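Record 1 of the preview.
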Amino acid sequence: HPACGPVLRAARGYARPVTRKRKDIPSHLDDLPPTLLKKDYANLPIMNSVDDVVKRLLSLEMASQKEKMKVKTQQLVEKVRRSPHDNGSFEVQGKFKKGRILIRTLEEHLQRHPKDKRNRRCMLMDLDRRRKMLGYLRRVSYSTFENTCKQLDIQYSPPQPYTRRVTKRWLVKKAFCIKVFQEKQKLKAAERLKQRREWQARARAARAQQE
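->
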């Protein structure tokens, strides 16, 4: 303000919030054409005779991200579908398509907001779930697994085998646990033998009474 002194003007300029420029991160939904209709209106025959303004309102140009994700999911289903009427195969019913879209969306979100730990945890859980489903499909039908990974642009990495670093403390603890387990098994065996002898004595007494 011109009426303020130079010190106050400098202080006001210093106190202004810093405007950070957002990164222009390309989205995986950018390849959808804006003239494409939404999923709920794409197969309606009346859409061929409606006005252009109505088509524009019902197209992806005016759609939300959720509606765009529905269209993207339908496109991925068409890629992995074995036949035009295939609705029951594992790759169609499985969550590969939805998981891929959610994972890509969360990746883009985390690039803009890297400190969002909740969504990072959700993304890791989705990755683990998808890896398990892909591992099952790989064991059942390897050709379908390869085709699904190729069509959905998924890179599968098998889980690494669990390994433990062998230390002296771990070896001593393991030997102690084995010894405790063996002693406990001996006590249980003595108790079982005593119980068995009691049952046998009762059975003999019952037989003697019957005779």
